[in-house]
């Protein structure tokens, strides 16, 4: 087993009267009131945009012309809609905007109301984009803030401008509002008592989800390693080691039996291991990225190769777990450690220069604020991270949900993925700060500055075959950013683009309705194809991408052998799903 490299002891903490400590204390108090968001970052973005817009008479004239043009379009639409049924709309909502799909929205006067709102939304997008001189980061922040504000005031959010709510009131005699009030009070009580959301009680870990049989075969301070019980008489010789992200509970990949990726792989004849990360506490505040690499990936790899000796490992990483696995693989390649047989990365970024809207929350001002908020607790609360992810898709995850549950009085049917999403995790102060600064802000890994053992690592050193999965509607790791692995490595690379988002696109079991994917392999050393050309030229396949991936793994296996003993020569430490996953 590898031994953990003990980091140098930090310098003695400065006294409480030290200016840095006073600033940190002040910002920590303010961060509690702002939910961890830096007001300075928001004000800088607004000032950058407002000042440059005020100095751009051409842009101002263009916005005036667009505003007048939209008013004329709406006036023509009102005239036609008042006198004719089935009048063509003057503007269509974006593809992902489903707020106005119901037929009632096409009836007078709600057709005019929602068309006016969409035109206003389009105008504000024009106003916040394309202002010369505004930095891209500030432009994205202002555009995002404007969209959040408009989504809050959407006519779908209010009783008298939502025909679906008015119809529910008419047919139920207002009972929907009573049910909605009860739903609101129930949610408020659960929030005040820090209870789980309604519906979670139907998905108990180890009883309803994370039920694939297995054993905990290794444990250290940070992980439990689970080995799953084989279901076939023989197995592929090379074991599969899965590294999930530490910002999520591992059982996203072992939900219900019908959509468990782990169970699917086991049933296909693979020996599967998975990491279950500990939910850290304030005592773990000084754990860093290097600790996660050693205690996580490397200790797990040592344990797997001890249980399945003389066999290389097919390694799989999900989200930031894939990023950490890539760092480990690059260091192993640099140092001549050839225990990896292949590398699969699921919705994992390695170049963070275009990391999507999550980057709106990452700049120097925001990180200083966030670090101050973590400083006194020693960790980032999982609910704060969950709230940030909700804001990225607030239209569906916040406002549409509130309309359904509080105005229509309909509780959303809970499913296993939603229950998992509510099972949040914390992140240590040092590790969270390091990965945000070194990966997201500075992009050290892609640009060759990320150091392991005092020396930089290079993704280009990884020579094993790779399969990279991106998802079409990913708000966390946009697929063109995931696709950048084509620029970082010359190894054989198979890229899969699947329908769905960051979670649902990965948890895409065979038989799942309306699923599709594209897949193509670039041979080692082949020329680069840009992502949009790749998407246009690659055939679309109906169904789940899992079978194609499993066949990819199978083709890289040397033979079928008898299943290895559970835990190898060491007695298992307990049954799956283990103890770390239950930590709150």
Structural class: alpha/beta
What is the overall shape?
globular
Contiguous runs where pLDDT drops below 50 for at least 5 residues = 1-18
Amount of helix = 40-55%
Can you give the mean pLDDT? Answer: 90
Examine the coordinates and then state which fold CATH places here, giving the name of the CATH topology of the largest domain: Rossmann fold
Which CATH architecture of the largest domain is right? 3-Layer(aba) Sandwich
With strands numbered from the N-terminus, the spatial order across the biggest sheet is 15-14-13-12-7-6-4-5-2-1-17
Distance between the termini: 29 Å
CATH superfamily of the largest domain: Alpha/Beta hydrolase fold, catalytic domain
Oligomer: single chain
Instruction: Please give the count of helices.
Output: 19
Report the portion of residues in β strands: 5-15%
How many individual β-strands?
Answer: 17
CATH level-1 class of the largest domain: Alpha Beta
Largest sheet, strands/sense/barrel? 11 strands, mixed
Total of domains: 3
Determine Rg (CA atoms, Å). Answer: 26 Å
Keywords: Acyltransferase, Transferase
Pfam families: PhaC_N, PHBC_N
GO molecular function: acyltransferase activity
Protein name: Poly-beta-hydroxybutyrate polymerase domain protein
